Amino acid sequence: MEPKELKVKIKRSFFDNYDRPLHLHPEFIKFEDKDLAKNSFTIFKSSDIKEFRYGIRWYRYYVVFGREYQFYIRSFNNEVLKIRFVTYFGRKKKEFNVLYENILNSLWDLYFRNQVDEFLNEFDKGESFQIGEVNINTEGVIIKVSGIIKQEIKLILWHNVRTHSYASYFSIYSFENSKEINKGYLYKEDWNTYVLYSVVRTILRNKNIEKY
Question: Is 23 within 8 Å of 5 (Cβ atoms)?
Fold first, then answer.
């Protein structure tokens, strides 16, 4: 079954008095993110979409007084579409939580679930590929870890690859040397972490190394 499109309107903040249409369609993303009389929409074709990141930024001053919901979608020509909306002092928090989840689920189902399948097909063919900063090949995963002076490149063979999943990030580490060979990837800051999570864990599950 083809994923359904999503049409919503977003009021980005208390100071933005305009409800901006967002349209997630199997063939494109369209969002009125500009304040121009003409050409106020940013449009990405589905085939142009390369990666995304998402998360919630918390505003604190002794206590949490606001949150900003963030989605960043990047195209192959490095243009970035930003979808953000803010709530203060809990106003419409439940409504915005639902909106955030709906957008995330639609982005995944419409554009990025297919990416996972494509990467897994490449893996089955014996090809290597890059997701964010991680190289994945038939031998294992190649990650950058923090060294004393600079980052070091480390290959973790598949039988030694392990992962942890947390609310805000996903980590890959070496079973034999987890203290020195490990790396965390934030969903909010690192591109395509959700895709990385899905690809690596699917491969590990298929190899009976980790179960989920």
Answer: yes
**Contacts of 39 by beta carbon, 8 Å cutoff, 6+ apart:** none
How would you label 50-77 residue by residue, b for 16+ Cβ within 10 Å and e otherwise?
bbbbbbeeeeeeeeeebbbbbbbbbbee
Q: Is the distance from CB of 71 to CB of 103 less than 8 angstroms?
A: yes
For residue 204, the SS3 value is: helix
* Number of CB atoms found within 10 A of residue 159's CB: 10
Dump the DSSP string for 66-109: EEEEEEEEEETT--EEEEEEEEETTTTHHHHHHHHHHHHHHHII
Residue pair 108/137 in contact by the 8 Å Cβ criterion: no
**pLDDT for position 178:** 95
CA-to-CA distance for 165 and 179, rounded, in angstroms?
17
pLDDT along the chain (212 residues), means of 10: 85 71 96 76 96 93 85 97 86 89 98 97 98 97 84 96 97 96 97 98 97 81
| Dist CA 13 CA 99 (whole Å) | 14
Q: Which of 175, 150, 153 is nearest to 163 (CA)?
A: 175
